[in-house]
Design goal:
With about 280 residues, this protein is α/β, with parallel strands linked by helices. It has 11 helices and 8 strands. It has a single domain, classed as Vaccinia Virus protein VP39 (Rossmann fold), CATH 3.40.50. Bound molecules: S-adenosylmethionine. S-adenosylmethionine (SAM) binds next to helix 1, helix 5 and strand 2.
Length: about 280
């Protein structure tokens, strides 16, 4: 993998160091997410969190699983015999869930973190999925797969780490087959909001990201073959999730600015689905 670029090394270092972290503590089932959750009915959710004490972590975790489940609906029915690329797979949470839902789907996950790749591999092996669901340390900006290898591409909260979105779109287009579907879920800077840039900068510093504006997701995909088919706003339900993390009081420490960033809509939470033109 070309991790020679100083930027990728920084991203890898961040995830190599996240071991017994907040995400891990949320997931005693071993399905570890590194993404936001979705909460519908904020007031009731906060009341339940308050009552549940330490068990509140399970509620936060369930809301993150709900995000994966919603995103899967936009994958256009992945079927046995198909292959899916999990681009920026973390510790494999979404891939493991998807493998359970869709037996016969071959999944390949890539992450820049060698620790994450090993942890995801161990989790897949522990579930008897080792042959069908594989993870490796590789960059989605230099994908080590033959052209046309994938029918579906899943990129959940990974494109924020990509300085060059056009390269991401062209690499995934090359690795995918004509007719493939790409689902991206991302934190997006709201260009129309006075505090959009300031919150994005604060998050970028904490998470080694380069949060993009929506315009960039639309422009960078041009001439790569990917055509935008769906744009869904998830900012409200994810703002409620961050409010829950803030109330839990035992999070990652970023809740103090991520909660108001989404609540004010200075940062947006978006799902984009693209199809690769035939
Ligand atoms: C916020 S985590 C999301 C993980 C996972 N998709 C999830 O939803 O739980 C970001 C992931 O993107 C990966 N990533 C960032 N840049 C990457 C690149 N150029 N190639 C491969 N993975 C990358 C990181 O290694 C990390 O696994």
């Amino acid at each position: 993998m070309k991790t020679t670029a100083p930027w990728l090394k920084k991203v890898a270092a961040l995830y190599d160091a996240k071991r017994r972290d907040f995400n891990w503590r949320l997931a005693p089932d071993g399905v570890i997410h590194h993404h936001n959750g979705l909460v519908y009915g904020k007031a009731a959710f906060l009341r339940r969190l308050k009552k549940s004490g330490a068990a509140g972590k399970a509620l936060i975790h369930a809301s993150e699983t709900a995000l994966s489940e919603l995103g899967f609906k936009y994958l256009r029915n992945p079927r046995p015999g198909m292959a899916l690329l999990d681009a920026g797979c973390g510790r494999g949470g979404s891939s493991l869930l998807l493998a359970g839902k869709c037996p016969g789907l071959a999944i390949r996950g890539v992450t820049v973190s060698s620790y994450q790749a090993a942890a995801a591999r161990a989790a897949a092996k522990g579930r008897g999925l080792g042959g069908r669901v594989r993870f490796s340390r590789a960059s989605m900006l230099a994908l080590p797969f033959k052209p046309g290898s994938f029918d579906r591409v899943w990129a959940c909260e990974s494109t924020e780490h990509v300085p060059d979105l056009a390269l991401f779109f062209s690499q995934t287009a090359r690795a995918a087959r004509p007719g493939a579907r790409l689902v991206i879920i991302a934190w997006v800077r709201n260009e129309a909001h006075a505090r959009g840039r300031a919150y994005a900068r604060q998050a970028d510093k904490a998470y080694v990201t380069k949060i993009h504006a929506e315009r960039e997701y639309l422009e960078a995909s041009k001439n790569t073959g990917w055509k935008l088919k769906v744009k869904k706003d998830l900012t409200g339900p994810t703002a409620a999730y961050w409010a829950g993390r803030l109330a839990l009081g035992d999070g990652s420490g970023t809740e103090s600015f991520m909660a108001p960033a989404f609540a004010s809509r200075a940062l947006l939470y978006r799902l984009y689905a693209y199809d690769l033109v035939e």
